[in-house]
Amino acid sequence: MQEFHNQTDITKKNSFTQTQFINWQTQAKSYKIYPKFFRRFNLDDYEELGFIKNFGKITYTKKYGNDEVNLRVNPSAGGLYPCEIYIQIRGIKSLLNGIYHYEPINNLLVLIHELSSDGLENYLKIKQKKFIFLLSNAYFRTSWKYEKRAIRYLLLDTGHQLGSIYASLILEGLDYTFEFNFDKEELNEVFSFDNYEHFVCAIYSSDYKEKDTKKLRDKIPFVNPCDYYIKEPFIEDFYSKLYKDNFKDFSCSFLKELQKDKLQKSIDNRRSARAFKKESISKIEFETILEDVFTYAKEFSLEIYFTNHLITNLEKGIYKEYNLLKSGDFSEISEILAFNQKIGGTSAATLFFTSKIKSNYSFNTILSGFLAHIISLRATNSNINSTGIGAYFDDETKKVLETQNNILYLMAVGK
Q1: With a threshold of 0.85, does the pTM exceed it?
Q2: What's the rounded Cα separation, in Å, for the pair 159 and 368?
Q3: Model confidence band, residue 16 (pLDDT cutoffs 50, 70, 90)
């Protein structure tokens, strides 16, 4: 996958040749709506399913003249929201056992397949579960703006979406298993995606019956996830290679330290900061929101650096984890590295997620988005702001950090 990453680098040279004008009137629709004749179920009517709203509900609406932008609990590069969620549900009173599409705009579940002796368990090679969540990418929503570099944002957005699902399950006290190693191409075909969408991962929870299932008896009807679509061979080739990756087992225990009401409040109030007031945060606050993150990242060949601009009781400079590499004020340099965005240098600290070249590129990028989501929820709980930064100068960042690692993501935290 390294060749795809290399082809999407931002350098000072190519940044001047990239398209600068975006006609926002041509933006693809950022949510999928099934036709009216599909049966719909309001999540507010099912107490056991209330946690699903935390996967992607709207928490804030911005108005720009006559236009509105709906912001969700999970961030997305450019506010484009390429992730779609499909949920198989069993054993909920007054709800048909079936496969549903989650419609966050309207707080609904849409029944797209009623179960009989069949089910998604067959494709995951597991016994029956109460909940199975499938996460797909409708990549044109992102490639419309970011072209080939969209592959990075798609993986990072997937990580953030996984983070929001994980937080919701922790909030509900439900068990969970992340699953990446299943036949995604087979499921793409069963869901009639025809390369308009691509499954990336699954999460399942709660044992239901020690029973095998058959494959789905019918294909899921096709509904275009956008109002129009331009296919990109580079990105489709990327997904075909991604399907051959062997992902590592992935589990964690983040956010369990937060009380239920505080976690719910953090989910509801999390925002991507647009600017910082250049106020300091304490070393203890920083360590709290990063607790166990560095150690966890290392298990998967992720190495996290940060530049300290305004953390008190910690020397200013560049750090690899908590090891000081260079002393000095790097706020201006951090701004430059973050594609000349002020937020990269006015933060209390800017984190750099990197991975070794020979490690699993796709998984590590998704994991970077996931960990960033954990950090953002913890930061919100501590009244600290944060934002992910997906646009940065790749080679310049490597030079400053003195690493050959791939640069996967930047994240700014501060007040």
Answers
A1: yes
A2: 7
A3: low
